[in-house]
């Protein structure tokens, strides 16, 4: 049962001996990546509290500990549980201190950290460390703790033996007396107790072996070290018996046919990483779709007169940076964005008060609606200046301005045509008899009108095509 500490609850600390330099190094390099800096701070703080006796600290209350650590109850309690779980501390309740179980004092019995070899020999701890720091840092750590071997061909040992300096014990009785005096008491020492994890009940190792032996595995590879490694990987990564068989199969050396146990950590880590990336993709896509739908619904609610295509254009313009927007539009027109075009858009973004959304719609207006081949500086800055003077600040306002300009151009064109027709009717000219064929449109005139209609239809089709491709482009960008 996990107990929660309270500020006024008393506690004492017991520890075995002073930490050596190597043990401190082990705490920092091996344990800290697993338990975190808060748990390590708690361990070192408890270890260095003033002593009342040789191994026992003074009785303190937890609120003092919170002040020293600058941590609250939840953080300190979490750090305590990590120390207990990793084997650095054992916690006891003093049942005789209080009748109320929630007020009974605590005893924190600090354990020495494992040395490097003990730690690495422990499959669970070494696998957990590998998972936390990655293969590159793990291998660097191994190299930093490695002891260089002496060249025995070059160096010949000439160390003096014990018997050459000291006299042997004169009597076996003396040694027996010493042993009797010591009895069975436990004494302070620098060796840490081997970390023992809880018995794993979620993994049936016999089932794993049954399926593994079907893979024609060399039975000499089925060692205790392999079992510990497999159980550790199961504990860290949650792989079942069949997944572990697949993992071990990948660790078989194709040349020797033997299982390379040291490869299992790296293979399990890579598998977990790729699985996590795979799981995140649909979640990320679903989240993006939900955000897109919410934003589009908000735009539709705020601007009910806009079509769904216009709503989508505004949304895309909000999401894509201006330089990327220009590049994608030019790609859809089977061209490419020039350095000058990108500079013009970037310069406009910096010196004008127009935001990204408005500038993107301005680019769309020039390249798609007006079907210009490039983003020309004059047209870009002239239109941008007009929009800024009119206080256009949103995508909807930009689209309304485009519609207004198109409507104005249409009215001016109709007015000009009407004036021309009126002037033509007022002309006085002599009517002459003409052949019937003179009133029929010429082939070139008919062709011109046909080409004009086709050209207009092509322009509308091209705009619709670009609109559809723009939507597909943005969807692909989200999936990527």
UniProtKB/TrEMBL annotation:
It comes from the Bacteria. Coiled coil: none annotated. Residues 328-401 form the DnaB/C C-terminal domain. Residues 6-271 form the Replicative helicase loading/DNA remodeling protein DnaB N-terminal winged helix domain. Residues 273-299, 416-460 are annotated as: Disordered. Pfam families: DnaB_2 (PF07261), WHD_DnaB (PF25888). Residues 437-447 have a biased composition (Polar residues). Residues 448-460 have a biased composition (Basic and acidic residues). Belongs to the DnaB/DnaD family. This is Uncharacterized protein.
